Amino acid sequence: MDKEILVIEDEPQLAQLVEMHLCDAGCRVDVALTGTDGLAKANKRRFDLMVLDLMLPDMDGLDVCRELRMKRDYTPILILTARSGEVDRVLGLELGADDYLTKPFSVRELVARVKAILRRVDRMAEDKPESLNFEDLTIDCEKRRVSIKGDGVRLTAKEYDLLVHFARNPGRVYTRSQLLDLVWGYGEDTYEHTVNSHINRLRAKIEDDPSEPRFVRTVWGVGYRFFDPSESDAQRSK
Ligand code: CA
């Protein structure tokens, strides 16, 4: 697989066992026995995935997760937890963890989950369809052309990039700061209101009624999400 994995787990024997099995699966593994060490390693270089225990001696695994996401590190995370409470599960997934396993688990199961996440990530990176279609909206990704009911729509480069990010992940909620990172990049001197004004201009161009957008919807207090064709009509009308 040739993937780099960081295992943050304070039980040395378990960490070693996980390391051994992931190495057998062809991964390169780095182990951190504390949250602080894990964060330091994650700051130093990029990993393809992290296996993160929630009960660490120095800090809560959820805080490790929160800190990574705050630094806009979106490395996939598989959470290990001895607490089977629903709250932890939801919190972990809300913080952007990709999956979780409840202790005790079989290491074989862990390797299978890790492989599944890595496959999903690889598929997303490769999956660049030539054209995206949503009802009467068509995006030709090769020619960077957008049309509504067959009529061409003129978009600026940023408006187009925004639209394509949304359209590739229908239904997914993006915060303004995520969109800034995705479309404008880390270094550029831009602000979250830049996102709002681009969204407004994009809506004016592709929506029949920009005040009741069909494609680019507002998620109040969070950000935006693109129309998901698999949603039921009841969900859609919300
Ligand atoms: Ca632990």
TrEMBL record:
Query: List-wise, which residues carry 4-aspartylphosphate?
Result: 53
The UniProt entry's GO CC annotations, sorted and at most eight, read: cytosol; protein-DNA complex
Q: Which UniProt keywords apply?
A: DNA-binding, Phosphoprotein, Transcription, Transcription regulation, Two-component regulatory system
Q: Which InterPro entries match?
A: CheY-like_superfamily, OmpR/PhoB-type_DNA-bd, Sig_transdc_resp-reg_C-effctor, Sig_transdc_resp-reg_receiver, WalR-like, WH-like_DNA-bd_sf
Q: Which positions make up the DNA-binding region? A: 129-228
Q: Which SUPFAM superfamilies match?
A: C-terminal effector domain of the bipartite response regulators, CheY-like
Report the residue ranges that make up the OmpR/PhoB-type domain in this protein: 129-228
Could you tell me which residue ranges the Response regulatory domain spans? 4-118
- Molecular function in Gene Ontology: phosphorelay response regulator activity; transcription cis-regulatory region binding
Which GO annotations describe the biological process of this protein?
regulation of DNA-templated transcription
Role this protein plays: This protein is a positive regulator for the phosphate regulon. Transcription of this operon is positively regulated by PhoB and PhoR when phosphate is limited.
- Supply the name of the protein: Phosphate regulon transcriptional regulatory protein PhoB
From what organism does this protein derive? Answer: Candidatus Sulfomarinibacter kjeldsenii
Q: What is the lineage of its organism?
A: Bacteria, Pseudomonadati, Acidobacteriota, Thermoanaerobaculia, Thermoanaerobaculales
